[in-house]
Each structure stands twice: as structure tokens, then as C-alpha cells.
């Protein structure tokens, strides 16, 4: 488990670990309480019931799968002095979509989104995370707009929503092999270069 800072976090991390090893069925209150080293009443206090805990754990997995490098990308972009550095950041990010870690994270997101289709509370959590991530993506894009590096007439917010769709959309080629993924990467790089950085 990750760094434990409090009772709620320990319960959440225990549930996430159980989901990753045993799926949602593995999230049993007795086991979560034992793994977290927390009394069962605390679980009810923080999450209401088992479903509340599962929804929180799935929402956190979804957020982590999207936010893995965003903070670093914003910091790097703020320090850039040349447009080429900024363009390269986007190119590297797109190529990272296809790596094993990108495939795994996308699979996690798709599982959560599928589960959210019939669970309104989970859908609300996914929507909240999507709003958070698109806001941070818009922040990254706004750096380029303010410095004149992004020439697209679209708002940073609109571009951020589109970018989120790209991050999840690559799932359509994840299982088709390296050739399909490489083709997707190249078309996406070309599209982004033309949309964001065309002179």
C-alpha cells in the first residue's frame, strides 16, 4: 500500500489493493478493516457502507490512472522557454499512451466507466474526476496559448475535453497489437501538431 496518512486513506488504499488483486468481489468489510488496521465502524463513518467504499476506491483508481504525469507536465511546461520543448512534451505524452503502463491504466479506466453505467454514484465520481482532469489539462494547454505556442482557435477547455477523449480512445487499438498502436500514435501526433501548433 502507499503512504498512509489517516484512517480514511488506509481504508481507501486497502480497498484499492483488494480491487487490484481480487476485483470488486474481494472488497469485503472484514478484510478491508483487517488490512487497513482499522475498526469496522470507521469504514461506515467515512464511506457509509461497502458500496460507498467501492465507489470511492474505483473513483480514486480512475483519477490516478489519468493524473499520473499531469502535475509534472505542468511544471515542465512552466519552465520551458522554447516552443519546441513544449511540442516535444506533447509528442512524448502521446507515445507514452502506447506503453504497457498506458495500456494498463486505460484498461482500468474503461472498467470503471463500464461499472459507472449502472451506478449513478460512481458516474458522479467519474464526472467529478473528469472535470478535475480536464481543468488541469486546460491549465497545461493555457501555458502554450499564453506564450503563443498553441495557435488553435479553440479554447483551452475545449481542447482539454478533446484530449481526455484521446487518452481513453486509444483503448480501441490496445489489443490489436503494436502495428495498429503505432499507426494510431502517428495519426494522433499529426492531428495534434496541425490542430495545436500549425502556423
Output the keywords.
199 residues; mainly alpha; 11 helices; 79% helix
The rounded Rg comes to 19 Å
**Structural class, judged by helices and strands?**
mainly alpha
Low-confidence stretches: none
Most strands sheet: none
Rounded to the nearest angstrom, the distance between the terminal CA atoms is: 47 Å
Q: Based on CA inertia axes, which overall geometry fits?
A: elongated
Oligomer state of the chains in this structure: single chain
Strand-helix topology:
Elements: H1 7-22, H2 29-36, H3 40-47, H4 50-67, H5 70-79, H6 83-97, H7 100-116, H8 120-146, H9 156-169, H10 171-174, H11 178-197
Helix pairs in contact: 1-2, 1-4, 3-4, 4-7, 4-8, 5-8, 6-11, 7-8, 8-9
Describe the structure.
The protein is an all-alpha fold. Helices cover 79% and strands 0% of the residues. It has helices at 7-22, 29-36, 40-47, 50-67, 70-79, 83-97, 100-116, 120-146, 156-169, 171-174, 178-197. α1 packs across α2, α1 crosses α4 (50-67) and α6 (83-97) packs antiparallel against α11. The mean pLDDT is 90.
Amino acid at each position: 500500500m502507499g503512504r498512509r496518512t489517516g484512517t480514511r486513506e488506509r481504508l481507501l488504499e486497502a480497498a484499492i489493493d483488494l480491487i487490484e488483486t481480487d476485483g470488486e468481489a474481494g472488497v469485503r468489510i472484514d478484510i478491508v478493516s483487517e488490512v487497513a488496521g482499522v475498526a469496522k465502524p470507521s469504514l461506515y463513518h467515512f464511506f457509509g457502507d461497502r458500496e460507498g467504499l467501492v465507489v470511492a476506491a474505483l473513483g480514486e483508481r480512475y483519477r490516478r490512472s489519468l493524473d499520473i504525469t499531469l502535475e509534472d507536465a505542468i511544471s515542465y511546461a512552466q519552465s520551458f522557454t522554447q516552443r519546441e520543448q513544449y511540442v516535444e512534451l506533447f509528442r512524448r505524452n502521446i507515445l507514452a499512451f502506447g506503453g504497457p503502463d498506458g495500456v494498463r491504466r486505460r484498461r482500468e479506466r474503461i472498467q470503471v466507466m463500464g461499472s459507472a453505467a449502472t451506478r449513478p454514484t460512481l458516474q458522479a465520481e467519474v464526472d467529478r474526476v473528469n472535470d478535475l482532469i480536464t481543468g488541469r489539462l486546460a491549465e497545461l494547454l493555457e501555458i502554450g496559448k499564453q506564450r503563443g505556442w498553441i495557435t488553435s482557435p479553440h479554447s483551452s477547455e475545449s481542447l482539454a475535453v478533446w484530449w481526455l477523449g484521446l487518452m481513453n480512445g486509444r483503448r480501441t487499438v490496445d489489443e490489436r497489437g503494436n502495428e495498429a498502436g503505432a499507426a494510431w500514435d502517428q495519426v494522433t501526433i499529426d492531428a495534434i501538431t496541425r490542430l495545436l501548433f500549425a502556423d
